[in-house]
Design a protein that fits this description.
The chain has two domains: about 200 residues, 2-enoyl-CoA Hydratase, Chain A, domain 1 (Alpha-Beta Complex), CATH 3.90.226; about 50 residues, Lyase 2-enoyl-coa Hydratase, Chain  A, domain 2. It is built from eleven helices and ten strands. It is globular and about 65 Å long.
Length: about 260
Amino acid sequence: MSIQVHQLDSTAVVTIDRPDKLNALDYTTIDELSVWLDEAIIDESIRSIVLMGAGDRAFSAGADIMCLAQSIDAGTVPALQDIVTRGQGLTRRIEQFPKPIIAAVNGLAYGGGCEVVEAAHLAVAVDHATFAKPEISLGFPPPFGGSQRLPRHIGRKRALEMILTGDAVDAYRAHDMGLVNRVVPAAELLAAASELAVRVERHASTAVHACLAAVTRGINLSIDEGLAVEAAWFATTVPTVGVRRGLDRFLSRAR
């Protein structure tokens, strides 16, 4: 197995387990992650997910270059299917996941690894983490969704600087740009990511799902279209137990 999973209460900690390859995302790893996420959707014992890499050097160095080279050598159609469809499928699944996914960036996050961080709902990074978009040095643009998500998240000019130069930025620069929520010492990473997960899990799962879906869907729309998405997801929560309990708690304190 290229991934390892253990559960801390209602938080599943998923580790990309290829430390000898800097946790590079080969096709097997991408497929295993995708299958596990499909299973985790229906696992009611899982309320949130922390995603990290094995060891202390890398979250993920990105797509496995040996896999990419073989697919590219086979031609455009196989390359699109193997690399783009698979990679975009994983990051889309992460971005649209109905439970919060927190990237715990324990080292470098390059290429596809950075794209996974972009797709994750929240991110905490160690202070020695670095982030880069080096695909241009291989002759192609980011293929896992990074050319689209990164500009939306940190702004066009900041994103283009990373994409066009391939230069790495450190954890504090990534924090300033909004790519990660928090920077912590290495010894505190899992605790910080887990604490963030618990702060989300204290709220009704129906509300968490609605918030994730409204933001993820609405961010790429015009404001009017986005407001309609917001209204639709609000409507789904009105009849839920979560709303009833939340209102009852508030009203009982107000009396």
